[in-house]
């Protein structure tokens, strides 16, 4: 409705100032750790110019009004974008009643909560706990914390956004993801996924506390692409660009381009225009953000296989693939995700960074990886 659109526009207007403040904080901390600014990663050095240009701007945030400020019962809005919460946190909006909580999701954009028109629901009896299945059986919050010790750091623009709970909620939409029943294979697939997403979202620098690989899941969206107009393919009539939108990289795998936003929107909402008209949702909703990455990971794009099939061993290379050195394993996932830039250049820093994150993730998960992969 018009009120929601107004809130979204106001939120986007405040985003640039917020990013500038976060970037300035990261730069200050990095400078304290290392006086050699040239050791900072490329993204931070490029972003420094934007932070300097906005040094006189007072960073403010704009949030949606809490729709439940004046009602005693607040419930989750019953429509498709938030179905991953069903069975997990059906009472996620309850603390927003009477304005008693200011945290997410009470002021989320777009709004996720609404006043209940009926009496307070009677909670269903809590069933006795049963055995965990799939990822939940072994991918614990402790492992997540060990993998991403600084994901909640105030120095990161994604501070507190990428969480263990949001990841598991998103994974429910993809039952086969890291859940083949072969624990070693499942751990290896998860390590590969975390390796690629860590590479995309890392803010680590050579002298960073804990090492550069400890600063993954720090960015929730791409910051150094200017207006990001290069991600609008005006020839794509199936998923057309919408005026005023940019399709910069967002989410753990930095979903980019109007084609990917439109295709993911169809999969997530049943409507391609939902994200084509409001692409920033991918950087505002943590479950949707993780879903965008897992969807990209699980979806084949002919002639490319899916990253999932590659890591699970269900993809078999053709004769042409073999001649070009394509084989099942982690290297092929890089080819699928960003092969046009990173493949056939074995000494590229980006490739080495991906491999380092993959090996680190596998080590923490307790699974071996082959050098040939």
Automatic annotation (TrEMBL):
It comes from the Eukaryota. GO terms for molecular function: chitinase activity. SUPFAM superfamilies: Lysozyme-like. Residues 288-298 form the Glycoside hydrolase family 19 catalytic domain. GO terms for biological process: cell wall macromolecule catabolic process; chitin catabolic process; defense response. Keywords: Disulfide bond, Plant defense. InterPro entries: Glyco_hydro_19_cat, Lysozyme-like_dom_sf. PANTHER family: CHITINASE 12, CHITINASE-RELATED. This is Glycoside hydrolase family 19 catalytic domain-containing protein.
């Amino acid at each position: 409705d018009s009120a929601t659109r107004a809130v979204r526009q106001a939120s986007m207007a405040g985003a640039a100032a917020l990013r500038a403040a976060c970037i300035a904080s990261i730069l200050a901390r990095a400078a304290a750790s290392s006086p050699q600014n040239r050791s900072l990663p490329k993204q931070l050095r490029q972003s420094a110019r934007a932070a300097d240009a906005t040094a006189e701007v007072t960073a403010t945030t704009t949030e949606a009004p809490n729709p439940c400020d004046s009602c005693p019962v607040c419930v989750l809005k019953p429509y498709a974008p938030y179905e991953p919460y069903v069975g997990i946190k059906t009472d996620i909006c309850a603390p927003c009643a009477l304005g008693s909580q200011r945290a997410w999701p009470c002021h989320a954009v777009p709004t996720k909560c609404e006043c209940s028109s009926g009496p307070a629901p009677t909670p269903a009896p809590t069933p006795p706990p049963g055995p965990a299945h799939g990822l939940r059986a072994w991918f614990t919050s402790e492992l997540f914390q060990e993998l991403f010790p600084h994901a909640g750091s105030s120095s990161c623009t994604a501070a507190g956004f990428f969480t263990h709970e949001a990841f598991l909620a998103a994974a429910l939409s993809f039952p086969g993801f890291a859940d083949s029943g072969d624990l070693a294979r499942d751990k290896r697939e998860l390590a590969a996924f975390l390796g690629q997403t860590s590479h995309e979202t890392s803010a680590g620098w050579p002298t960073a506390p804990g090492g550069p690989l400890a600063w993954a899941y720090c960015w929730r969206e791409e910051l150094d692409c200017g207006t990001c107009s290069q991600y609008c393919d005006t020839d794509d009539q199936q998923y057309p660009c919408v005026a005023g939108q940019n399709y910069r990289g967002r989410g753990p795998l930095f979903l980019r381009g109007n084609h990917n936003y439109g295709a993911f929107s169809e999969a997530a909402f049943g409507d391609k225009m939902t994200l084509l008209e409001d692409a920033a949702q991918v950087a505002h909703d943590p479950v949707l953000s993780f879903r965008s990455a897992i969807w990209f990971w699980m979806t084949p794009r002919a002639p490319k296989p899916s990253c999932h099939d590659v890591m699970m061993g269900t993809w078999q290379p053709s004769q042409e693939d073999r001649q070009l050195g394509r084989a099942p394993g982690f290297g092929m996932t890089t080819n699928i995700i960003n092969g046009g830039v990173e493949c056939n250049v074995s000494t590229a820093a980006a490739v080495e960074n991906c491999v380092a994150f993959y090996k680190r993730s596998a080590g923490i998960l307790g699974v071996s990886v082959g050098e040939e992969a």
